[in-house]
Amino acid sequence: MKKISILIADDHALMRFGLKSLIATQPDMDVCGEADDGEKAVRLAKKLKPDVIIMDLMMPVLSGVEATRRILDGDPTAKIVILTSFGGSVDLQQALAAGALGAQLKESRMDNVLKAIRAVSRGESAVDPEVQTDIDTMPNPIVLTTRQQEILKAAALGKTTDQIAAACGISASAVKQHIAAIMRNLGAASRSEAIAVALSRNLLKI
To answer: Considering only CA atoms, which of 45, 26, 100 is closest in space to residue 91?
Structure first.
């Protein structure tokens, strides 16, 4: 049985130790790496290509939000679970908007964290109900990552998926996943509608 490989990104050594100890008790999981700052998380995510990344929001050098954006810019298939102490934070909202699939409170039951890891590894959303309630009461910001802006701008200029892939140095499949994420984020039903919405809200400049 292939184990779920997990990268833990948290600047608190005790938190990393606790998560690593918990994961070590699970026969279907394995910790492949640890990062104590956001920049290292981005670097290890690219190097190790873990199945799931557990990301703390408040980290030195590079915040969890920015690390999440950069990881997903480089690999839109990356699966990230945010661990946070604040369910209603703007940072958490932005991390989810950028493409993180899961969000769990640090004080959550450990079995909930494990369930979230398994769900996210399957590509499913795993947001704690308490977190979701907090998020639902907040204004919904629209956030496009740097890579998403680059891809949407190229699409607006009439570039094909293959042309965008070649220009960005990524696969055509990755371009399609980025565009799907952009459409979800903007509430658009098509590529052209996403371009129109982004232009109307000053999220895209050509």
So the answer is: 100
